[in-house]
Amino acid sequence: GSRGFFFFFFFFDVFAFAAAARRRPPARPRALSSLVASMMSSSGGDEIETPPSPSDVDAVRAYVTTGPLFPQLEMRDRDVTETRVAEWIALVAELCDVLGFDAHSMDDAQASRTYRYYLPVYLWTEARILAHVDAYQTPQRSRDPPPPLVVGLSAPQGCGKTTVVSTLVKLLERRGTRAASLSIDDVYLTGAEQDALAAANPTNALLRFRGNAGSHDVGLGVETLRALRDVNGVRGDGGEAR
């Protein structure tokens, strides 16, 4: 398939855009923020805690499907075939390569991070890309590349947004998807603008420093998002922003 399609991802902490070949999309998953919320609120329940061996398909299936994020993918039991689990194992091997883990000797934290966090988030992202491409494969649109896809992730500071996004970008690139990232830190007010804002609001100490509400150049951020959304020369709705 063509590699010329561009998609734009917006994450609360990181922006990224990517391109991918067309394949049949899996079932439409829920919002990415729901995945993160599930991960943060999980109390363990019936999760299997022993890290699986990548050579044991049944163990990998059980470990992934009992993780807190898996239900958000809305996969049916019959969808979790041996072939699909083998694809998960291959993805985890690539994730381990990116993260510097040994896929055959991960500790509990590493296994949970790869199999139950990064893998489901990657599968969610891939599903959105493929569904977006599929939506633009119509007789009226087939000549034009689809507009960039916009996806949003909102999570508290320290949840690892930057790390998961940078890992996703690397994995997407390895699998034939062109990707890049841009941090929200790049749309702060300039130093002079921040000083002027603080001077105009002397009773609000929060406006003296970057990082707080009011310290970003919202206009620049919107302009950047719009420009990247139209990078293909085809204006679109930009997909999904959350």
Fraction in helix: 40-55%
Number of separate strands: 3
The major pleated sheet works out as: 3 strands, antiparallel
**Beta strand %:** 5-15%
Uncertain runs: 1-29, 237-242
Protein name: Glycerate kinase
Keywords: Signal
Organism: Micromonas pusilla (Picoplanktonic green alga)
What does this protein look like?
This is Glycerate kinase. It comes from Micromonas pusilla. Keywords: Signal. The protein is mainly alpha-helical. It has one domain. It is 42% helix and 7% strand. A three-stranded antiparallel beta sheet has the order 1-2-3, with helices on both faces. Helix 2 crosses helix 3 and helix 3 packs across helix 5. The longest helix is centred in the middle third of the chain and has 28 residues. The two termini are 29 Å apart. The N terminus and C terminus are likely disordered.
Features:
globular; Glycerate kinase; disordered C terminus; 242 residues; 3 strands; mainly alpha; 7% strand; three-stranded antiparallel β-sheet; disordered N terminus; 7 helices
Secondary structure layout:
Blueprint: E1 7-10, E2 14-19, H1 32-41, H2 57-65, H3 82-99, H4 108-135, H5 161-174, E3 178-183, H6 191-200, H7 218-229
Antiparallel strand pairs: 1-2, 2-3
Helix pairs in contact: 1-4, 2-3, 3-4, 3-5, 4-5
Keywords: Signal
Protein name: Glycerate kinase
Signal peptide: 1-20
